[in-house]
Amino acid sequence: MKCFQGSLEASQGNPVTRVDSLPRIAATVLGNTLQCLPPLSLARSPARPCAPARATPFPHPPATPSARAAAASLSSEPPKPVGSSSSLVYLAGAAAAGVGGYYFYSQSASSATPKVFTPTKEDFQKVYNEIAGRLEEKDDYDDGSYGPVLVRLAWHASGTYDKETNTGGSNGATMRFAPEGDHGANAGLKHARDFLEPVKGKRLPAPLFFAPPRSNTNPIIIAKFPWISYSDLWTLAGACAIQEMQGPTIPWRPGRADKEAAACTPDGRLPDGAQGSKHLRDIFYRMGFNDQEIVALAGAHALGRCHTDRSGFDGPWTFSPTVLTNDYYTLLLNEKWHIRKWDGPRQYQDKTNGLMMLPADYTLIEDKAMKPWVQKYAKDNDLFFKDFSQVVVKLFELGVPFKERSERMTFKPTNA
Question: Which of 54, 249, 254, 381 is the right S-S partner for 207, CB 3.0 to 4.6 Å?
Fold first, then answer.
């Protein structure tokens, strides 16, 4: 059963109730309001009897005639007959303390009534804003921002592409499944995937919000943007994080579709930080990149840090791990790097022992073809931003079957 381009979640033979764009406070008001609405048809399979309704955590007023009339005035669609197999109640702007439009969707195993929705640029800007607004909501995560790990999620979801077989890439979001989600290169990215989950939708037990007079313990899906695929969500989050961390504009376009576990890519398609330039060329040439693009993409290491419980390496590359600049290149060239003496994997340290570089970073200034690009980007931040934006767009779009004449869009940063 599918709704909203495959976003509807349903259990076998059970109806699913969905709420769109529903803040928690509004949900409380909605719980009271629903008691005043005419009963909705929530058809269930005869083979699966209803469980007893659980008590609601807050009292409800009696369904007086005036209350029923007031609630009915909020409906933009006349109620369906009681015997119908699915029911849709849409409550508009004034409902639930001024919340924007949201809806209930009830579905039986035999039929469904989808609500057609075609997202616009404004809708994607709302997704962007939602992500941007949450980047720094947890001060105790890493350096105070989820931005770097979101860039890494988008990067690793896209960097599995193989141009010879046209497999992998951002189209599919197969990191949701094992074994791909458990690959060593993806260690720690569950933090990023979990961070984005409430943006798409969250499953909650029905009694948390309301206890209808009939038996109904089906889950409610609190879905802010259920129509966006995980594949689009992850890459949009990467573009958002780069821009919000003062990086360049990253043009982006939708069109990716989620795939099942069978489409998971084999391990070994992502770069290994412990390797040298030959390995980097093997990995990036497979995707269709050249030496200049390899060096430009490496500039993303200006963001974030390594963790011993993920990659095994430890420490940040720069002194400002939540701001994108060309510092990665200037530090790589100008600092005196030495091998760190510790029990972990081989990595380099600066003289303060506060920064680190991986062997895959250091090889960029050892390789005769790559070092000139490191020097160019170290001297010119604008050139780095221009090339970085272009190569990130290319990375995020590898293998995606976009519709003909689909256009890229740009988003306004919230910190602009």
Answer: 54
Q: String of b and e for 226-257 (b: at least 16 CB within 10 Å)?
A: bbbbbbbbbbbbbbbbbbbbebbebbbbbebe
Among left, alpha and beta (phi > 0; psi -120 to 50; other), residue 283 is alpha
Instruction: Give 137's contacts (C-beta < 8 A, 6+ positions apart).
Output: none
342 burial (CB, 10 Å; 0-12 / 13-18 / 19+) is exposed
Torsion of CA 350, 352, 354, 360, to 10 degrees: 0
> 235-268: per-residue pLDDT in tens?
999 999 999 999 999 999 999 999 999 999 999 9
Q: Helices 230-244 and 147-158 meet at what angle, rounded to 10?
A: 130
| Residue 13 CB coordination number (10 Å) | 14
Decide if 258 contacts 229 (C-beta within 8 A). yes
Q: pLDDT tens, 125-150? A: 999 999 999 999 888 899 999 999 99
- Complete DSSP assignment for 160-227: T-BTTTTB-SSTT-GGGSTTGGGSGGGTTTHHHHHHHHHHH-EEE-GGGT---SS---PPEEEESSTT
Give the C-alpha separation, 83 to 288, whole Å. Answer: 57
CA-based nearest residue to 39, from 80, 95, 85, 92: 80
Where are the domain boundaries for CATH 1.10.420.10 in the chain? 119-173+229-416
The CA–CA distances, whole Å, from 3 to 199, 228, 233, 248, 345 equal 17, 12, 18, 36, 48
Catalytic residue set: 156, 317
DSSP state, residue 73: T
**Helix, coil or strand: residue 104:** strand
Nearest alpha-carbon partner for 107 in 220, 17, 31, 179: 17
Please give the Cα distance from 207 to 220 (Å, whole number). Answer: 9
The candidate with the shortest Cα–Cα distance to 327, out of 366, 381, 279, is 381
Assigned fold of 119-173+229-416: Peroxidase; domain 2 (1.10.420)
**DSSP conformational letter for 41:** P
SS3 301: helix
What is the reported pTM?
Answer: 0.72
- Secondary structure element (H or E) that encloses residue 105, with its range: strand 102-105
Q: Alpha carbon of 110 to those of 11, 14, 39, 260: distances in Å?
A: 13, 10, 20, 24
Q: What are phi and psi of 195, to 5 degrees?
A: -60, -40
